[in-house]
Amino acid sequence: MTFPKLKTNPGMNPESVIQGDRWRIGILTESLIRLEWQESGVFEDHATQMVVDRDFAGDTPHFTQTVRDGLLIVDTPALRLTYDMQPFSKEGLSIVVKGVSNSQMNTWHYGDVQRGNLRGTARTLDEVNGETELGLGVISHDGWAVIDDSVSNAIVDGTEAAEVRGEANPFGTWVVPRDNDGTDLYFFGYGHRFIEAVQDFYRLTGPTPLLPRFALGNWWSRYHRYTEDEYLKLVDRFEQEGLPFTTAVIDMDWHLVDDVDPKYGSGWTGYTWNRKFFPDPERFQRILHEHGLKTTLNVHPRDGIRAFEDGYDAVAEVMGIDPKSGEPVEFDLTSPRFMDAYFCLHHDLEAMGTDFWWLDWQQGGVTRQKGLDPLWMLNHMHYLDSGREGRWPLTFSRYAGPGSHRYPVGFSGDTVVTWESLKFQPYFTSTASNIGYGWWSHDIGGHMFGYRDEELEARWYQLGTFSPINRLHSTDSPFNGKEPWNFHAETRAAMDKALRLRHMLLPYLYAMNWRAATEGRPLVEPMYWQSPENANAYGVEQEFRFGTELVVAPIVTPADRDVQLAKADVWLPQGTWFDFFTGRRYESRPAAGRKFEVWRGLDGMPVFAKAGGIVPLQVLDGLNGRENSVDNPAHLDVLVFPGASGTFALKEDEGTNQARPDESALAVTAMNLAWGRGAAGEGGSGESRFVIAPADGNRTAVPERRTWTVTFRGVAPADLAVAGPTVTVNGEPVEAQVSYDADTLSLTVTVPDVPVAAELAIAANLVIADDPAVEDAFRVLYDAQIDYLTKERAYGLIRESGAGALGALHTLESTASDHPRHDFDDSHMPSAVIQAVAEPLLRAM
Length: 845
Description:
Blueprint: E1 17-19, E2 23-27, E3 32-37, E4 47-48, E5 64-68, E6 71-75, E7 79-83, E8 93-97, E9 107-109, E10 145-148, E11 154-157, E12 163-164, E13 167-168, E14 173-176, E15 183-188, H1 194-205, E16 218-222, H2 228-241, E17 247-250, H3 281-290, E18 294-299, H4 312-318, H5 336-350, E19 356-359, H6 374-386, E20 410-411, H7 419-432, E21 440-441, H8 454-465, E22 470-472, H9 489-504, H10 506-519, E23 524-526, E24 544-546, E25 550-552, E26 566-572, E27 575-579, E28 585-588, E29 594-600, E30 607-610, E31 614-618, E32 635-640, E33 646-652, E34 667-674, E35 688-692, E36 696-697, E37 705-713, H11 720-723, E38 726-729, E39 732-733, E40 737-741, E41 746-755, E42 760-764, H12 773-783, H13 788-801, H14 806-810, E43 813-814, E44 829-830, H15 831-842
Parallel strand pairs: 16-17, 16-22, 17-18, 18-19, 20-21, 32-37, 43-44
Antiparallel strand pairs: 1-2, 2-3, 3-15, 4-11, 5-6, 6-7, 7-8, 8-9, 10-15, 11-14, 12-13, 23-24, 24-25, 25-30, 26-29, 27-28, 27-30, 31-32, 33-34, 34-35, 34-36, 35-42, 37-41, 38-39, 38-42, 40-41
Helix pairs in contact: 8-9, 12-13, 12-15
């Protein structure tokens, strides 16, 4: 077997290097500087655990160097470095970042605390109830960030490590200690060009791999002692409920745990199927595959391979241990011989049907090799091994420091079931993108401790829909199962809706997956990435961009009892936006954008699409096979939002290994909206035209013919008998099914059986819908838990004056403590009801 190599290009461009006897400065870009001090004068030119490329396509950045008064001055268009050419010190080494507004701290001195750093991520959320400390990112309020790579090990070619500790090394690459103990820093001086900084971080540390399509669907996971029969009944129930799952996570009880003789130690480490629970593991996993599920097994490998394991004899012999002795084979990541035997053991298990591994390392950070974190080594070696023989590599593990994005997917750990945990996760997820870590998987619904709160669970499911990876998980408590049918009707309906929507989003998610891998743009991004000079963008920590088209502001606090709705604080950048679900229009006209409150019932979530936004969904119907199919769909529903022109490129491939994306494998279907009218009440004229171009590239990857449903959301109804849309395929008119839904302000056009080699065009006189503000305000009042006289007076004011009624409504304002509910003489309106009523009245102003 040939063990895959990590692709590296570690040498710096000699033309971009300035060097003394014990110091070296590498100008990697005009904003990215490498700073080294080595007493020995021997510098590190290998790849490291973090860094794999120091010569970006041979580019030579523009810079000048001058020595004056004993100081080296290096000047680029972005930076000015001053250095006394002595051991690094605060007095002798500094860099000024040019063009940084709103900061007086744009000069870095060696050793400065990074107070303005916008942070990165953390190793785990295990037992965290709310916030936890985050590591550093590569972007900052002050325009600079420093990542220290001094202690990480070096990655060398297998030929350089042909023998390690007297053992032959069969691996293509290996990890060895550095030959020096000096300083090796990377200075990111990108100002507020946050996106460019992260993209260059990927150039330095390696791109994010493309994930297989199934990984973007729903994952089922629970720490529970399932039997084969119980697990398969669960899968059947999901199918009966119409709930699509693509990944079956089997926690540690797949292997022997309680049946381990105490003389061997804990049962947490194990590699032997528990035949009492799973009499035939191959049959079990084959049936899961037949149901459209991929499987992953949990492993805690710390305790090595012990004598009770099925694979012990073979591993012991490789390690020179007499199997009859029963001596344990120690877990030793620094031994090539052990690692070879360790992977052979895993390969035997994979031959029984396991698709990838859940590496649940929780046992500290020490190996026999100085500075080598066992978690990092496990991630690195397992990911490379999972890609052997042309397989699509995938691991599921914890974060192990900068560069860990090369080994997706991340497992954030066992969170506490509280509102505080839920509130932290959106911020935690988006901030991780500041260190390039884009594929976090959380315990959706929370794992342990905490309390039962059905509203909390529903809101967590909704966050999961718009998370990088959506994996439900819980502990083995009879009260803590996450199956939707364990909840009451309203909660269950919200959960079902969230799970189905996640699967419907697969076409959009997969296009964003390609974007992440090829453009260095994670699926989830903080709002300030695209608005770095806008202070409002930093004040919405729970809000984030979700790909190119959407902004998400998950609800992370309980509903107000008086109004029966929950609130999220939202900031929308300048422009026109639409509610993804209802088509309601939100105008954000000031240059600084607009901050406001949105209120939603349990079945709603604040998700916004930009004007001109295009979001392809797959339809959960028979045309696309079984409900949890991850095949490229034969029936798509494309949501199109009015108000501006827009484009979208649907990207699909044939499902073979694309971890290193190959453009020749792609089928790209371009979609284009040419908007021809103004917003409601703004006049304007002209016909709007939406075109789905013929699939370009690898058409064998997609169905030969497709049914297209195009839903224009947020538009006014048309007299379909007089002015219905015109639909053509390759310029020839065709019949289409056309309908209008007043609840979501949606005009829907369905065209069946369109060849993917053909152009589909829909032309219509579209107009943005009038806002049903008064009707929506009525619905808020209808559900409010207040007295009827107050509702009637408030509604009368709203019908008469619309948004102008808000001032009068405040005259009715009170708190429950001020006015008992049995007081029938006066009208009292709680502030939350006024705030919720204000949203529809003000949203389009």
